[in-house]
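May I ask for an example protein's residues together with how it folds?

___
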Amino acid sequence: MASSETMIRVGIADDYPVVLRGIEAILAPCPDMQLAFSAESIAQLMTCLAQTPIDVLLCDYAFDDDPQADGLDLLKRLRRHHPELKIIFLSAHAQPQIISSALELGAAGFIGKNRTDFVNLPQAIYCVQRGQVYLPQSLSASLLGSLYSVHSRQTGLGQLSERELVVARMICQGMSIAAIAERLKRSPKTISNQKVAAMKKLGVSNDVELSRVFQSLGH
C-alpha cells in the first residue's frame, strides 16, 4: 500500500454515471491512487474541489446540464481557482483545434472516450503527475501531423534539426528519454542532448511548455 505522501489523489467528473463507474473500475486496482470523489455536474465538481484537495482531475469536456459552458470555459475557471490542479479532459469527439486550445490554456492531457484510450488512464495520470502532457496515440497523430504544415516550417519549429524535431515530438507524446532512446536505437545521453537543444532553441524550460509551443505552432 502506498504511503499518504506518494498517493495520487484523483477526482473524476462526468455527467454519464456509466462513464464514472467505468473509470472507477479502471483505477480501483491501482494501489497508489486514491479516488477522492466522483461528480456528475459542474456545480457538484466545484463543491467537491472546494472540500477535497486532489492532484489530478479526469473531467468531461462538455456537460449536458450546462450547454453554455464548454471545456475551455470550464478550464479557465478551474485554472483560476485551482492553479496547481492537473486536468485531463475526456471527450468522445475531440477535434485537433479543441485539443490544441485546451493544452495552450493549461490542460495536462486529453483522452478519447473509447476502450483503447480508457485502459491507459493510469498511465495518463502517472504522466501528468510527473509534469508531462499526455495524449494517447489516437489523438496525438492528428495533432502532430500538422507540425509538418508550411506554417510550422516557417515558424519556430523550423529552427530544429530533423532529429531534434523527432525527439521533441516524442517527448510531447509523453514518452521518456529511455523509451525514445530504445525506439530510435540511440543512447539516452544523445536523446537528452537533443531534447535540451530543442528546448533551448524554442525558449522553453520543461515538457509542458514544450508541448504548448508545439501545439500553438501547429494550430
Observations:
- Strands lie at 8-13, 33-39, 56-60, 86-91, 109-112.
- The first strand starts at residue 8 and ends at 13.
- The chain has two domains: 8-135, 149-217.
